[in-house]
Design brief:
mainly beta, 2 helices, 5-stranded antiparallel beta sheet, single chain, globular
Length: 159
């Protein structure tokens, strides 16, 4: 297997991510399918599930929450109910968002001020996104290994 070069985050999205540095996390949620969501900013509870003004998430990929070399919880934890995983994750203090880092051609890390990291690992072979970052004004940043980082409107089709 030939290693491909890491794809670069589009400049406008880099600037938006930089503006998030030092802002507190306001939402931590795990979906019934073990999807993961971490939010910053005002929380909207008008829908069926709460969402934050800015939201990092993954629908289909594996994830883990770790600190100081120890996994605190992860998507593959053996639990009887997803609520157990949700309770564990919601007890973790993330603090402020510090950085989004690409660990490899497949995997991404979110780093927080408390030393907690959230790794999102590409464990799917289809062309779905590994991670998404929804911003205000209907803008979204996505990462998928084959196409790399893409930034655009979330309410319009991408070419």
């Amino acid at each position: 297997m030939v290693a491909r070069p890491l794809k670069v985050i589009p400049e406008k999205a880099k600037l938006l991510l930089e503006e998030l540095r030092g802002r507190s996390c306001t939402l931590q949620r795990i979906g019934s399918d073990k999807s993961l969501f971490i939010g910053i900013g005002e929380i909207d509870t008008s829908g069926t599930k709460p969402h934050a003004e800015i939201e990092f998430g993954t629908y289909d990929c594996a994830w883990r929450v770790a600190r100081e070399g120890k996994v605190i919880c992860g998507s593959d934890d053996a639990v009887d109910e997803v609520l157990e995983l949700e309770n564990c994750f919601s007890a973790v203090v993330l603090g402020d968002f510090m950085a989004l880092q690409q660990l490899s051609e497949f995997d991404v890390r979110l780093a927080f001020s408390t030393g907690v990291v959230v790794d999102i690992m590409c464990t799917i072979s289809d062309d779905d996104e590994v991670i998404h970052v929804f911003f205000p004004r209907k803008e979204v940043l996505t990462f998928q290994p084959e196409t790399g980082w893409r930034f655009g409107r979330s309410d319009e089709p991408w070419g």
